[in-house]
Amino acid sequence: MPLNPSNISNKAGQWLALISLLAIGPAIVQAAAPDTTLAPTPPMGWNSWNHFADKVTDKDVRAAADALVSSGMRDAGYIYVNIDDTWEAGRNAAGEIQTNDKFPDMKALADYVHGKGLKLGIYSSPGPKTCAGYTGSYQHEEQDAKTYAAWGIDYLKYDLCSYRDIMKQKTGDDRSPEASEMMKQAYEKMHRALLATGRPIVFSLCQYGWDDVWKWGPVVGGNLWRTTGDIDDTYKRMTEIGFSQGPLAQYAGPGHWNDPDMLEVGNGGMNGDEYRLHMTLWAILAAPLLAGNDLSRMSTDTLAILENKDVIAIDQDPLGKQGEPLRVAGTAEVWSRPLAHGKAIALFNRGEQPGPVTLHLKDAGLKPGTGAHDVWNNKDVTLTANYTVTVPRHGVVLLLIH
Ligand code: GLA
Questions:
Q1: Domain boundaries, the chain
Q2: N or C: which end of the chain has fewer CB within 10 A?
Q3: How far is the CA of 146 from the centre of ligand 1 (A)?
């Protein structure tokens, strides 16, 4: 048999399924070897929810695919076009999930997206209803996985939503240890259903970080897992999420990523400095980069942030190690991410005024005289023992050191 990525992925997946099967039960937190072939670096692309929410249509998704190509974003690495909640209708007499009027022909849409050199993602829930009240996959997991594979789906975001009600009904409390086991098994069930289709489908867990999902996400087949509740397009919420992620660094790696939620860059609720901070922090966190704006109406400033080659290279670094804080002093935070060849260091100013932020080179194990590229200011600099820069309010200076 010729060696191709889907065969490799399938084999790894079968092993993973076996290991997972053995691990299911109270001792589920045992780590399994994750399938690193599907998401060797954090997934990049676009998702409909942050901008379009329940209004998203086939037309919007095609426009997003067109824009990914014409803007150069596809070639910069943004390849997943992900439809979030509200595409679902009910089921037909055979129990097969149907699309609603906003999505007249999902297979044709997948063909269109694939024809542009992109991949298509979709959304469902282990519960009977999705978070927006549409039809979920409860008791139809194998059937839905087969439908997705037949359509040509490449990515599934699986959102807990109303499965919490089932957990509560069956165990009396949706946060009990028994409910937690039910939740893990629900994710594992869909993972096995996806594997059984033979189609490589990235599996994105969305259950808001409950029960330390980062400890068992890979065991149930997750390639990424949301670590928090929803982001919104405010500096306050974005930083609340982003700056809380340091302790999770050890759980990220090739094939299995922490997901602090989709990007809000370009949605209008933050200024340029704040969006540059957002993009930088997500790259330091090795987070999935799923743009959440209207790509067909994006400003050149927004595109420059999303498409910055150095920031994308940091996010996609093949070593796959997530960054952590080096030093926090009041509103000044210095974070560092090890890279395959060097490191990235971000000097954040979370204060309400522009002000100095200092990188103490010894914190980073660097010597005075080391050269660095100041990414957002696009200039080369030489680092001194206490390298101090003035950083805009809610802004960042990002240094790339080779
Ligand atoms: C939840 C998820 C969001 C989005 C909505 C859709 O809130 O966390 O990312 O998918 O559901 O209903």
A1: 24-315, 324-401
A2: N
A3: 23
Around 119, how many Cα atoms within 13 Å sit in the side-chain half-sphere? Answer: 21
- pLDDT tens digits along 13-31: 433 443 444 444 433 444 4
| Mean pLDDT value across residues 268-292 | 99
Residue 370 burial by Cβ neighbours in a 10 Å radius (0-12, 13-18, 19+): middle
Half-sphere exposure of 367 (CA within 13 A, CB side): 1
Q: Which atom of ligand 1 is nearest to the CA of 230?
A: 8
Fold of the CATH domain 24-315: TIM Barrel (3.20.20)
Q: Phi/psi at 165 (nearest 5 deg)?
A: -65, -40
29 C-alpha to center of ligand 1: Å? Answer: 26
pLDDT of 84: 99
- Catalytic residue from among 230, 301, 310, 363: 230
**Could you tell me if the CB of 206 is within 6 A of ligand 1?**
yes
Q: How far are the Cα atoms of 142, 152, 158, 331, 370 from residue 20, in angstroms, in the given order?
A: 17, 26, 18, 43, 46
Tell the CATH topology of 324-401: Immunoglobulin-like (2.60.40)
The per-residue pLDDT for range 89-117, each reduced to its tens digit, is 999 999 999 999 999 999 999 999 999 99
Spatial separation of the C-alpha atoms in residues 245 and 257, rounded to whole Å: 12
> Would the CB of 84 count as within 6 Å of ligand 1?
yes
Testing ligand 1's pocket by substitution, the residue of 131, 158, 164, 261 carrying the most ligand atoms inside 8 A of its CB is 131
